[in-house]
Amino acid sequence: MQLLKNRPSTFAWALMAVFLVSRGLILFGYSTYMPDSPFFWYDAHQAVFNGHRAYRDFSFTYLPLTLPFVYLPYLCGKFLHHYAPWMKLEMFLVDIACFRLLILICRRRLGFDERRTFAVAAISSLFALGVGHSLYDRIDLFVALSLLGSVYLFGHVRTRLALYLPSLLVTLMKIVPVFWLPVLIVLDNARRCSGTREWVRKTVRDLIVCLGGATLFCVAYDRLWSAGGLWATLKSHGWRGIQVESVWATPFMFFRKLAPNKVFFIKSFGSMHLGGPGVPEAYIALSKVAGFALLVVALFAWARWLVRARAGLKKSNAWPLATGRGATEYVASALLLVVLLLLVSQRVLSPQFFIWAIYPLALHIVLWQAAYEGAISVLLYALCFVNFRHDYVRLLDGGPGNIFLIVLALRNATLVWLFVLVASDFITRYHLTKPLPEEA
Question: For residues 432 and 249, what is the distance between their CA atoms, to the nearest angstrom?
């Protein structure tokens, strides 16, 4: 009896050990490599010390709700060598929140036992090592936090706003969550509404309210604080070309080895993009819209399937997507699929973007006992580590070696294959074998 009584504390210590060992390696074993903290420190210095305003007096890449988290470390350390550790601490606390939410999802929402929960913790920590050089020097952990928060809250909150809020808040930091917000709105209204027409009407209403509210916030901020600078910053992102690490760039990275005078690198927004006469303007234009178009088409096709499935039910109250484990499984799988689609299809792909997937991917692997997908994922994050840490700096010198190109091509091919596997599993499991997950 005493042994059984002590088991939960032993399990908690095991989880803590996995987290602290992996993060200790990152914090104390990884050297500082191409951090963003100097840029954040400069922005904070301009605002806090000089009294300047972001977007109006100095450029700032991210959206307004990022600013408090950029300024806060400066209040603790006004010099760069003090600022950087405080920023790491701030992001470390966000990582703790992500890890805690992950465990809560496993235990409370999915009903995992200790063994499966430990497996999720260990796998996610292994993935974190692959992106460790950017884990605490970027703000992308907030994106992961909003995704986990959405999965945890789905089906367990009374008001729609409580479910949408994590995605909306982080959208006003980094716009990524806005792409899975429609998934949450469609599924949440599906379980709340009794009829198909009411479901469609309230889904459209919530989309307009959420997206309109975020837009109005940005408009008000721009008018009151940045004098047009915020909108100028948002528009400038449309000028970005094809980032050299993206799937879109891979063929031209090899073409550059054959014709270096036709394909060259342009540095903008702190990253390297393709340029030159060897990169067709039509291809660049296609890369800017194709990823978003693919996502929109996929969302419409998925929503249309759900409407047809709903209309085929004999009773309006027979809709199975409610508050049980099946609903959590479905939402987690759908959001992971959106994240992977963004990584595959967008022309901008930075190393820190892979932070978005470490937690939902670990959930997916353990949830469905997907050993093959787990092996592919381990390979992906190993290639991410090698790609960024050991050869990326050659890009800044203008001449990446053959090893870089091979590693980059393997990483992108692995990413595409992982997306195909996850998408195939999702379609087969939910949209071919049965209409929707049954309520637990």
Answer: 34
Which ranges of 222-324 would DSSP assign to H, the alpha helix? Answer: 229-236, 250-258, 281-311
Confidence band, pLDDT 50/70/90 cuts, at residue 314? very low
- Structure tokens belonging to residue 432: 């071919």
Is 414 in contact with 130 (CB distance < 8 Å)?
A: no
Given this model, what pLDDT does residue 273 score? 85
Is pTM beyond 0.70? Reply is yes
Q: How far is CA 182 from CA 211, 246, 296, 321, 343, in A?
A: 10, 25, 10, 16, 18
Contact 265, 274 (CB under 8 A): yes
Rounded Cα distance between 296 and 345, Å, is 12
Residue 282 has which token pair? 């039509």
Radius of gyration (C-alpha) of the chain in whole angstroms: 22
What are the start-end ranges of the H helices in 113-249?
114-130, 132-135, 141-153, 160-171, 181-192, 196-221, 229-236
Question: Cβ distance 352 to 138 under 8 Å?
Answer: yes
